[in-house]
Structures are given as C-alpha cells and as structure tokens.
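Lab notebook, design round three. We kept the backbone fixed and only want residue identities now. Task for the bench partner: fill in a sequence for the structure below.
Input structure tokens:
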C-alpha cells in the first residue's frame, strides 16, 4: 500500500504543478507588477488554483502515509519521477521546448536521487 501512496503523491504533485502553470498563464495579468494584494487574492480564489493547492495538501497526506511505512531513503527516489512527468507533460500541454540540456538535466537529477538512495550512510 505504501507504493500506492507514493504514486498518489506523484500524481497529485504533477497535477498541482501543471494546473498552477496553466492558471498563471491564463490569469498572469493578476501578477503584473506592481503586484496588488487584491489581484493575488483573486488568483488564489480561482477554483482551479484552489484545486491545485488541495492536490498539494493531498499529496502531503499521501506522502506522510507512505513514509510512515517505508524508510524515506527508499521512498524519496520515486519523487524524481515528478521532474520527468512535469517536463514531459509541459511539452505536450504547454508546447514548451524540451532540448538535450533539459533531458540530460532531468536524467541527472533522477540518477542523482537514485544514487543517493543507495548510499549506506
């Protein structure tokens, strides 16, 4: 069951990141300089933004459930999947560019987390 909670953590985190990117793109004028507190409140009260924050909260709950049963050194490497999924989905959804440097950087991050999780310290 711990791995189900890890998967839910990943999915909810990726959802939240993509929704926030989308909403900032749609309502970016609310963040224009100089930043007005009322504009920020308007953005924070958008239903999709609220859903992204709810997803982040849900991801936190799932993460707590996962690490209550697994050592964090075993569970945490799976979080590197977030980098890959967000980058891949940003290309598909937002038409962001994915060049060799971004691919290499994402792979290095993922590999680094896996290597760290294998240490015996």
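Proposed sequence:
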């Amino acid at each position: 069951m711990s791995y189900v909670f890890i998967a839910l953590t990943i999915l909810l985190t990726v959802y939240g990141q993509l929704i926030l990117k989308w909403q900032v793109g749609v309502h970016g004028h609310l963040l224009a300089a100089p930043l007005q507190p009322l504009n920020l409140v308007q953005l924070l009260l958008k239903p999709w933004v609220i859903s992204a924050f709810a997803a982040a909260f849900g991801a936190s709950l799932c993460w707590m459930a996962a690490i209550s049963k697994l050592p964090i050194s075993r569970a945490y490497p799976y979080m590197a999947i977030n980098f890959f999924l967000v980058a891949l989905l940003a290309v598909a959804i937002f038409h962001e560019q994915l060049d060799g440097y971004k691919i290499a950087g994402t792979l290095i991050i993922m590999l680094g987390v896996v290597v760290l999780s294998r240490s015996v310290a």
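Keep this in mind before ordering anything: The mean pLDDT is 92.
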